[in-house]
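User: Structure please.
Assistant: Input sequence and predicted structure:
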Amino acid sequence: MSDVRKGQVTIPSDQDFFDATKTLIDKWGADAIRDSDGTKLDPELKTLSMKFYSTYFVARGHNEFAASHPAAVQQLYLMSERVVAYTPTLTIGLMAGYYDQQIQPNWRDNPKTYWEVIDRTTGMVVKPADWTVDEASQSVQLSAAIPFHEYTVSFLADMLWDPTEMYNHLTNNWGDKPHDIPFDVRDPAARDFIQSYLKQWLKANPEIDVVRFTTFFYHFTLVFDQHAREKFVDWLGYGGTVSVAALKAFEQIKGYRLRPEDFVDAGFYNSTFRPPTQRYLDYIDFVQRFVTDQAKILVAMVHSADKEAMMFLGDNWIGAEPYGPYFKEIGLDAVVGSVGSGMTLRLIADIPGVKYTEGRFLPYFFPDVFRPGNDPVIEARANWLTARRALMRKPLDRIGYGGYLKLAAQFPHFVDYVAHVTDEFRDISDKIADTIPYSSLKVAVLNGWGKLRSWQSFIVAHGKRYEQTYSYEGVLEALAGQPVDVMFLSFNDILATGIPADVDVMINVGSVGTAFSGGDIWQEPRLVTLIRQWVAAGHGFIGIGEPTATAQPYQGRRFQLADVLGVDQELAFSLSTDRYWDQPMGENIAWITKDLTLDFGTGTPNLIAVADAQYLRYGREQLRMTVKDYGAGRGVYIAGLPYTLDNARLLLRAMHYAAHKESILMQNYATNPNVEVHVYPGKGLYAVLNNTHDKQNSELFLNGKHTVVELEPDEIRWEREPQ
């Protein structure tokens, strides 16, 4: 695509790399240059006609201030290891299992006021009079422990090393480089410092066009163990936002006091998988409001200096959630984030309230990938093909890369492949930017978080995954590139305002007891009643994994919408009830699974068909799918859906079946699941994608007309819509 124009691409650079950077600017068509953590731009680069981004750290990288203001150091609540008492006297070490270069207990603020000792056998809080602290040994001593009960201490800790800088430091072996100390802008002196420093920085850097905030004030929860390995990481976690000042402000604003347990959460630290309590939701709202108020001051300062303000969706992004209620008030020009999958691309591309979005593609130019004997093209190609499906639905405005350009330049084959990616990206952007793609359905993903965590179910970061969610995460990845409109709906949304009138299909997916499946919210009669009425009126409901499930059977059911889905889960309480597996699979499941090689992942055990459901099973009583008519609507159940191209097609067919819109599916459709069709009515264009590294052929149905196409590996073919 040598005739494709240049631009819309940001690349990193470094000192003493001017000539090579110029070569790559031309080869990749870059129009912007950025620095990275630990790098400085070569002064000669500023002679080029380019846009310059500068990474800007608000609450780290200022160790002189942090060292002179110890009360402003960022804090978090942590839980000690669980210790069993054998006598009434018990000593609990606070730092066991923690990295002492990252965190230390906060001894400044009275532990008797801000810590809790909990008997984890009973769940009761131990009276402060029954324990003492010993700063010298960094421990807590109990004087009236109950023998053979288990105890923990929830304590405030100072964060002495920024987690991302720590990761970069260890990964790149930065040796004696000083550790960045994060500090909390709730401290008035810290607020004054960050504003005065930014004012000076803006004056001192007139050549910078884009201030890339990385990000604002609070890092996602990331704590390391005694061996400097990740101990707890939650990309959505608010654990690193707490302080005594925050606790006091929360009580004044919300009218009640939080406990340490509201943060420690029995050692789960409010993982995003936990159904959020109202107290935790109140705290999230409180932090978002504060971050918005403070961040918009900094953004206004950037604008007054005639520069753009960009936010990196990562590192210190907590409280600046782009799908939160206050985000637009910050006034940002752009958001940039790491693209690890189609799901993470949509997470960035769908962000409202900014002028443009930018995706940082993988691999990152770090020595863990760019090392002798490794081929970084393998990861780059997989990353691009996966993300490209989503790009066809909602294109980013810009793309880029990060890390050390010196490393990438040592791999000529990789340099050539990035040139292909950047050209193809610009070609896609030119053809479909600001165009609404064809959609056959409106789909709502139902969970405990709703819109706040759009495209973030099961997320780790940068497209990584949890092994335990392998069988579920494919749902959002499949949806990211399919011709359907996707929204995210919470259980509280339904209880408050009902189900939006334009939704055709609702999907509930996840493990029992989690925020994504729902947990005990399914014991709420109004919720199940509203959904049953909605399905019976002619809509579709799809459950995957352990949908609508309560931790314990409720009124004889594990899946509370078993009647809709046609399936329940056996917990051994009804093994004495005979089950007969003599019903044939049925034509409805056969239609959904037609010509597909299915992968149910780890599946879901002990499933039983309910009422008149049609079902698909493998082996002796291993049920994998059910379909069921429910009034004028339909329910569909799938035991697991890891991401494969066949599984993505399975979901697409299941959604159309559930919505009674099978005929619409074939309006714009490729029979080969490795091939997808995207139609853009406003431009009179359609694109046919080969999502594999092999040649593919497929029948195509476009506006009712039939044709056959043969595609080269990775190919996109653009054609005019048939009339």
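Residues 9-64+203-225+292-432 form a domain with the TIM Barrel fold (CATH 3.20.20.80).
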